[in-house]
From TrEMBL:
Binds 1 Mg(2+) ion per subunit. It catalyses: dITP + H2O = dIMP + diphosphate + H(+); ITP + H2O = IMP + diphosphate + H(+); XTP + H2O = XMP + diphosphate + H(+). GO terms for biological process: nucleotide metabolic process; purine nucleoside triphosphate catabolic process. Pyrophosphatase that catalyzes the hydrolysis of nucleoside triphosphates to their monophosphate derivatives, with a high preference for the non-canonical purine nucleotides XTP (xanthosine triphosphate), dITP (deoxyinosine triphosphate) and ITP. Seems to function as a house-cleaning enzyme that removes non-canonical purine nucleotides from the nucleotide pool, thus preventing their incorporation into DNA/RNA and avoiding chromosomal lesions. Gene3D superfamilies: 3.90.950.10. InterPro entries: dITP/XTP_pyrophosphatase (IPR020922), ITPase-like_fam (IPR029001), RdgB/HAM1 (IPR002637). It comes from Clostridium tarantellae. Mg(2+) binds at E41, D76. Belongs to the HAM1 NTPase family. One of its GO terms (molecular function) is XTP diphosphatase activity. Keywords: Hydrolase, Magnesium, Metal-binding, Nucleotide metabolism, Nucleotide-binding. Substrate binds at S8, N9, N10, K11, N12, K13, S77, F159, G160, Y161, D162, K182, H187, R188. Pfam families: Ham1p_like. This is dITP/XTP pyrophosphatase.
Length: 206
């Protein structure tokens, strides 16, 4: 059985991916579960550049270990706010300067938008996933989710900018949604649906 190595140790992200791909005949592992300790610098100018860089570096580690029958999956995602010219974009995780500090990132975003009218607070989440296989295949998928930035944090079941990302069609922020609701419309959920079909076809051909 092939192994799918997710280029992340983010428990929330790993759980979401495992749930969406659980019916595929493939073993899914986080970096920690695969015993890989690496911190790839995300210095690309696009989500795809960052995803590809992460996947390539982890593939090289696996090749050096003489591993076989693997697929590396790397993703980069972020929030793009229309009136901020697409920012925070690739800097989403470190928007306030400290990587992964959700509280400070949300505070900075709210501060920058405090004088912006509700109708001008349009935003989208984008997720780009790159997969590299041991036998040289490359697969790319992208998903987007559209909404607005709320004026305060709403909801608890989430991470990142989820408590601020309001989706009119469900009248909820990402942080108020169940996992199934979020997966059905989220940027990562949409990208993973494409991934699932690509993986299914790839596995069937081997």
């Amino acid at each position: 059985m092939k192994k799918l190595i997710i280029a992340s140790n983010n428990k929330n992200k790993v759980y979401e991916i495992k749930e969406l791909l659980k019916d595929l005949k493939i073993e899914i592992l986080s970096l920690k579960e695969a015993k890989i300790d690496v911190d790839v610098e995300e210095d690309g100018s696009t989500f795809q550049e960052n995803s590809y860089k992460k996947a390539k570096q982890i593939k090289e580690i696996l090749n050096n270990k003489k591993e076989e029958k693997f697929i590396v999956m790397a993703d980069d995602s972020g929030l793009e706010v229309d009136c901020l010219n697409g920012n925070p974009g690739v800097y989403s995780a470190r928007y306030a300067g400290e990587h992964g500090n959700d509280k400070k990132n949300n505070e900075k975003l709210l501060e920058e938008l405090k004088h912006v009218k509700d109708e001008n607070r349009k935003a989208n989440f984008t997720c780009c996933i790159v997969m590299l296989t041991d036998d040289g295949e490359e697969m790319i998928a992208e998903g987007k989710s559209y909404g607005f930035i709320s004026r305060r944090l709403i909801g608890k079941e989430a991470f990142g900018y989820d408590p601020l990302f309001y989706v009119p069609e469900l009248k909820k922020t990402f942080a108020e949604m169940t996992l199934n609701e979020k997966n059905s419309i989220s940027h990562r959920g949409r990208a993973l649906k494409i991934v699932k079909e690509k993986l299914k076809q790839y596995l069937e051909e081997r």
